[in-house]
Structure to design on (174 residues):
C-alpha cells in the first residue's frame, strides 16, 4: 500500500515534471519567435497600420527601437557618421540639404515639422520608411521602386535619424 502510494506519487511527480519542462520549452520556443514586443507603427500618410517584417529588426539597436520606440544611436558619433553616409547615398541630401537644413524638401532640424510626429524618432522612422503623400518617397527596404529590392534597413534608418538629430536641438527620444 505504501509502496503503491509512493509509486503513484512518483509517477504524478514525473508527469508534472515532464509537463512542466514540456510547457516551459514550448513557451521558450514560442517566445523565441515573438519575444520582441513590437510597438505599433503607423503610416504618415493616413495613420493606418504600418507592418514591417520583424526579421528586419536584426540588430540590438533595431530590436530596442521596435520594442520601445527609442533610437539608441542618438548622440553616438560612429553611428551618426554612418547615418550621414546613407543620407548622402539615398539622396536625402539633394532634397533636404547637407545638414538637413532644407532645400527643395523641408528642413528636418525641427523642432517644428510639417508632420508634428517627426519630432519623435518613432514618427520620423515611420515617415522615412513609408514616405508621405506630398513628395517624400518611401525609403524602407523593399518599398523603393528598384530592382533588385533596395532601401534602408531599420538599423540604417535609425542611423540616418541619428545624423539628422545631430544637426538639431532635439533628440527625438524625449
Ligand atoms: C526627391 C526629393 C526627396 C528625397 C530624395 C528625400 N526627401 Fe524627404 N521630403 C521631401 C519632400 C518634398 C518632403 C515634404 C513631404 C510632404 O510635404 O508631404 C519631405 C519630407 C520629409 C520628412 C518629413 C519632414 C516634416 O517636416 O515633417 C522627413 C523626416 C524626410 N523627408 C526625411 C528624408 C530622408 C531621411 C531622406 C533620405 C533617406 C529623404 N527624406 C529623401 C523630399 C525628399
Amino acid at each position: 500500500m505504501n509502496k503503491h502510494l509512493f509509486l503513484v506519487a512518483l509517477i504524478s511527480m514525473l508527469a508534472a515534471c515532464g509537463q512542466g519542462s514540456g510547457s516551459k520549452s514550448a513557451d521558450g520556443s514560442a517566445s523565441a519567435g515573438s519575444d520582441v514586443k513590437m510597438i505599433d507603427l503607423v503610416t504618415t500618410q493616413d495613420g493606418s497600420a504600418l507592418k514591417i517584417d520583424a526579421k528586419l529588426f536584426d540588430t540590438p539597436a533595431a530590436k530596442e527601437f521596435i520594442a520601445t520606440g527609442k533610437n539608441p544611436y542618438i548622440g553616438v558619433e560612429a553611428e551618426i557618421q554612418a547615418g550621414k553616409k546613407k543620407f548622402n547615398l539615398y539622396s536625402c541630401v539633394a532634397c533636404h540639404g547637407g545638414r538637413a537644413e532644407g532645400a527643395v524638401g523641408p528642413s528636418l532640424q525641427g523642432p517644428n515639422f510639417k508632420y508634428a510626429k517627426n519630432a519623435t524618432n518613432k514618427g520620423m522612422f515611420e515617415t522615412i520608411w513609408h514616405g508621405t503623400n506630398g513628395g517624400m518617397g518611401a525609403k524602407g527596404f523593399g518599398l523603393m521602386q528598384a530592382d533588385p529590392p533596395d532601401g534602408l534597413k531599420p538599423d540604417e534608418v535609425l542611423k540616418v535619424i541619428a545624423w539628422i538629430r545631430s544637426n538639431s536641438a532635439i533628440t527625438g527620444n524625449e
Summary: Residues 90-92, 94-96, 105-106, 108, 113-115, 118, 124, 127-128, 132-136, 139, 160 surround heme C (CB under 6 Å). Residues 70 and 173 are 6 Å apart (CA to CA). Confidence is low (pLDDT under 50) at residues 14-33. The chain has six helices and no strands.
